[in-house]
Amino acid sequence: RSDAGVARFDEAIARDQRIEPADDMPEGYRRTMVRQIAQHAHSEIIGMQPEGDWITRAPTLRRKAILLAKVQDEAGHGLYLYSAAETLGADRGDLTRRLIEGRQKYSSIFNYPTRSFADVGVIGWLVDGAAICNQVPLCRSSYGPYARAMIRICKEESFHQRQGYELLMTMMRGIPAQREMVQDAVDRWWWPSLMMFGPPDADSPNTAQSMAWKIKRHTNDELRQRFVDMTVPQAEALGVTLPDPDLRWNAERGHHDFGQPDWDELRRVISGDGPMNAQRLRRRREADEDGAWVREAAAAHAAASSPAVSS
Ligand code: ACO
């Protein structure tokens, strides 16, 4: 990298301009972007599994159509994000291999089982709600293709969040057993949802540099607080209890105080030892193997129809 290239990059960041694929960028910036975008893409693709498990068991045709559309949106987000990673010179097949071999991460949240149909609603409400909190600021992330991808993804995530909340409202108007299913799902997903934002700031090795490069606009703890403040009134409107005895409004701070998730659990889940890690990766590997003939056929077709080959 030339000195002029370094200066151009630093100036663009200082002026809040976007970094585009052909621009000079430090190797560390490129690596960080590939890491975050790939992890995000993997999360969308693996994230199809927990809810996908309920497509054949949705209670009505309407719920099934909504769920199918939502899971397809997640596939779309994944592909969109792999395209963004490719603008940085990453290879999609290589990223998938790294995921399958456990060399690249995906979100901890998708390593928990979906035990009842209420989980579909709670994933929409809490998990997609947390994703929106995290991703709306990423629409202003410094890397252009990632920031632009986030705009469309956030719009779709908002629809996902609404459908989850509407599903839960419907169940809460139902019989006592349905209300109990909703409360049980909230109890199981609350703490893992808070963990989605990553470790506490003091234990987050990447935050300081990513904030300096304007990749991240807020720290993990800031976004977690924003999520709690946003969710408490929604829980009240729904009529469910959030399973945290320390949760209360703090008028002095103008925010809710809340308890700490089990950070050891997050570490275990991230390192591959969560309740569903093995199954999630096995299924991803099987899907990759089952799809190999499609990729080979597409590559053969592209080679046969390219002018270089036919001339
Ligand atoms: N699940 C899995 N890994 C995590 C999680 C989590 N919830 N939180 C943090 N990590 C990993 C980080 O990737 C990092 O690992 P690495 O350095 O080996 O890559 C390590 O734990 C330390 O964390 P941080 O220093 O805080 O890492 P970072 O600055 O990248 O912040 C965060 C983590 C907030 C998840 C950030 O990467 C981000 O905003 N990513 C984009 C959003 C995203 O990936 N969402 C996916 C789930 S949402 C959905 O798909 C519906």
Automatic annotation (TrEMBL):
Its EC number is 1.14.13.149. It holds the Pfam family PaaA_PaaC. SUPFAM superfamilies: Ferritin-like. GO terms for molecular function: phenylacetyl-CoA 1,2-epoxidase activity. Keywords: Oxidoreductase. It is an enzyme of class 1 (oxidoreductase). InterPro entries: Aromatic_CoA_ox/epox, Ferritin-like, Ferritin-like_SF, PaaA, PaaA_PaaC. This is 1,2-phenylacetyl-CoA epoxidase subunit A. The gene is paaA.
